[in-house]
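Continuing the series of single-chain predictions for the mutant panel. This is the parent chain; the variants come on the following pages.
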Amino acid sequence: MTINKYFHGFASPLGIYLTFLASLVTIFCRMLAVRNYLHHVDNLKQLENNQKAS
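Parent structure:
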């Protein structure tokens, strides 16, 4: 990780905190992406059902 190398001069808890923060942001973005993907899939299924019904 480049973040740890950059903040090695500072107090080490700061580096740990920033790494933790970065991982949280990454997890959050992935969750959003998955949610958007599932929502998109649901919309496609609804479109298919609507076309079959009409």
